[in-house]
Design goal:
Length: about 700
């Protein structure tokens, strides 16, 4: 039978050493302990297992200490462990079997190192190490820190695992050893560069870590697994520094070296998830689930990226996209990896609640009537985007802000909205996927609470308002269309004039001032944010960018793909100053709005309001817009921002001084706040309720 020498180096390991030695003492044939300066009971504990205990003066060189331990080995093979490592029972059995079955031709055995664990004891980081080496080859450790054995010959991978049970906290010991190496004449090898960069990363010295990771990659001599890992860690560093361009670039660059790895795909998925671009996030997370796990690779493996993480993230992505069936599917897959994970359990509970659009609290509230003069209001949203919208969705944003303000005023609001909407009102989730106006009308009628004072319909076709229900129903006309309803409300005087001959009600849209960040500091770019549609004057926008030479950022969804491909795409591609970034939301949207030199709206249609103008002014950014629809009305105190032609807009972009950012914000908040919007609507509600009661 093959014999094994266990060789270890230790220092002040009294807490863990006995546990380690007890897990292997009946398997190995000799135990050699080299102590590098313990001041606790480490050597006393070691003597319970062996009398081969040797002292070694520490010289900041792990390889020197390990080679010293190897020099005392006398058996066929040498096994090495750290004091906070153990062999679990199943691995003990496998090692015993290996002693019997190992072929004499095997020079080294790689064993999996389970290095980090989650709260459930599941492995989250693992990699392979050279654990068992043939003594006759006179194996030598190399490098003072992050040492390794340069194994040669016939090497096999084993399914035996060494389990790391860390107790000690990370220190700057490793970093100091590298700094000693740098201060001397020793040249860092490519492998040294990688591990030094990694230590810098661990200590949050991101700029220096980036420098050395790049030096390592540029040598073109690194082990491919380390190169890919360097790309991954570089992305983390760039992310910490909020360098989005390099973050993405280095991840894509990893594909040059080998097939995509799940760790890289999950990083890309996380990037697009955080940007609320769920379509792209889904692509990368799904790719991570489809990749074949490297079988013979000795590189670092983030276990969660090959199972739990992409599946739980796909659950969330599909939930945000409104595909409940796929969301449940991926949550179930994630549960196969971690059935007791809080996210899995929360999602299960969440999906159960979604099955019933009316909760017990809603049913209890159906029988209540309003008190203290407050109203019971049904708010009907379109069925396209959840409330509030994550990216594009001006109508949905108005519905959300109005609803929240009405609740704040003390009114009882029942919000009918798509699945996955969120509000402080009582939410009644549609059970269909839109757009389907008829389903909205059917669902609202079937689930109307009792004792409602008024219904407010925000759908594009005023579908509920057309039902002629006994409850008075007002309909906000958000688009330039004529809906034949009893109580239309327009969103500007101009819209009321054009669409209704000046008859009916109007209420300006409003924003929540707290949601728009202000900045007096502007950067050298102009911005368009909205739908990419012909009636928004996108070709005028491109002409302006071409004539001014200004950097133009375009953000928003594509309305008509044929129009985009035939009229827009080539002009964007051929102009380095024009960047189309798709839909944006969250902090990215805030940053774009508050730092733009100008926001442009060269609309060629009868714009009924122009909410983006108000949002820009709230951020302190001046809009420039064509004099169509309600634009002159919305910008009435800043006529210098209104343009009659592309020529005039070009001239103002190049030569006009923008109004004071503070004045723009003050104007926006005084005239277009959601509080003012809600007050106006409540007055309209009250007047219509009185009319309705007198008529009945």
């Amino acid at each position: 039978m093959t014999t094994i020498s266990l060789c270890m180096i230790v220092k002040n390991e009294q807490v863990v050493l006995e546990r380690c030695l007890a897990s292997v003492q009946d398997i190995v044939d000799e135990i050699i302990i080299v102590d590098t300066g313990s001041t606790d009971r480490t050597k006393e504990i070691a003597r319970l297992f062996t009398d081969k205990i040797y002292n070694f003066k520490w010289i900041n060189d792990f390889s020197a200490a390990r080679n010293f331990s190897f020099s005392y080995a006398s058996k066929d093979y040498i096994l090495w462990l750290d004091a906070d490592d153990v062999l679990l029972e199943e691995d003990r059995v496998k090692l015993k079997q290996l002693k019997v079955s190992i072929e004499p031709s095997v020079d080294a055995v790689m064993m999996k190192y389970n290095y980090a664990f989650d709260e459930f004891g599941k492995v989250i980081l693992s990699f392979y190490r050279e654990r068992l080496v043939k003594r006759s080859l006179e194996p030598k450790w190399q490098d003072p820190i992050h040492e390794f054995i340069g194994v040669i010959g016939y090497v096999i991978n084993s399914d035996i695992c060494v389990t790391h049970k860390r107790i000690h906290q990370n220190t700057d010991r490793n970093l100091k050893i590298f700094e000693v190496m740098l201060s001397g004449e020793r040249r860092l090898t490519p492998r040294n560069l990688f591990y030094y960069a990694q230590e810098l990363y661990y200590h949050n010295r991101y700029d220096e870590a980036i420098q050395y990771f790049k030096k390592f990659i540029d040598t073109n001599e690194g082990w491919v697994e380390d190169v890919i890992n360097a790309c991954y860690l570089l992305s983390v560093c760039y992310g910490a520094l909020k360098d989005e361009e390099n973050y993405i670039s280095v991840l894509y660059n990893s594909f040059v070296y080998d097939l995509p790895r799940a760790e890289i795909c999950c990083q890309l998925g996380a990037h697009y998830f955080n940007k609320e671009n769920y379509h792209k996030a889904i692509f990368w997370y799904e790719l991570a689930t489809q990749l074949e796990r490297p079988k013979s690779s000795w590189g670092f493996i983030l276990e969660d990226c090959w199972g739990f993480l992409p599946n739980i993230q796909l659950c969330v992505c599909y939930d945000r996209e409104g595909d409940i069936e796929k969301a449940i599917k991926y949550n179930d897959v994630a549960a196969e990896y971690k059935p007791q994970a809080p996210a899995v359990l929360h999602n299960k509970s969440y999906f159960e609640e979604l099955k019933n659009p009316l909760t017990m609290d809603h049913r209890w509230m159906e029988g209540r009537h309003h008190e203290n003069g407050n109203l019971r209001i049904v708010m009907v949203a379109p069925d396209i985007y959840p409330i509030p919208p994550q990216n594009y969705g001006g109508i949905e944003r108005v519905v959300y802000d109005l609803t929240e303000e009405l609740v704040k005023m003390g009114h009882e609001v029942f919000l009918f909205a798509p699945k996955y909407s969120a509000s402080s009102a009582n939410i009644m989730n549609y059970q269909h996927y839109g757009p389907n106006p008829e389903e909205i009308a059917s669902f609202v009628k079937a689930h109307l609470p009792k004792n409602i004072d008024i219904i407010h319909d925000h759908t594009h076709a005023s579908i509920v308002g057309r039902e002629n229900l006994s409850i008075p129903t007002v309909c906000t006309i958000h688009t330039p269309v004529t809906n034949s309803v009893k109580y239309p409300i327009y969103i500007s005087r101009r819209a009321r004039e054009i669409l209704a001959g000046g008859k009916g009600y109007f209420s300006y849209n409003g924003i929540n001032p707290d949601e728009f960040e202000f900045s007096e500091q502007k950067e050298d770019y102009i911005l368009y944010m909205g739908m990419l549609a012909w009636y928004k004057g996108i070709t005028h926008l491109l002409e302006l960018a071409e004539r001014t030479g200004q950097k133009l950022i375009i953000a928003g969804p594509i309305y008509d793909m044929n129009y985009y491909r035939n009229e827009i795409e080539t002009r964007i591609t051929n102009n380095v100053n024009i960047e189309y970034i798709g839909e944006v939301g969250g902090q990215q949207r805030q940053n774009l709005l508050k730092h733009a030199k100008y926001l442009l709206l060269p609309t060629i249609c009868e714009e009924p309001f122009g909410l983006i103008l108000v949002e820009a002014m709230a951020c302190g950014t001046a809009p420039l817009a064509f004099s169509n629809g309600a634009i002159p009305e919305i910008l009435r105190e800043f006529p210098q921002l209104i343009c009659s032609s592309v020529d005039e807009m070009v001239d103002k972009v190049l030569h006009q001084q923008a109004p004071d950012p503070l004045a723009l914000r003050k104007y926006a908040l005084e005239n277009f706040s959601r509080g003012k919007m809600a007050e106006t609507y409540v007055k309209i509600y009250s007047e219509i309720i009185v009319k309705s009661n007198s008529n009945s």
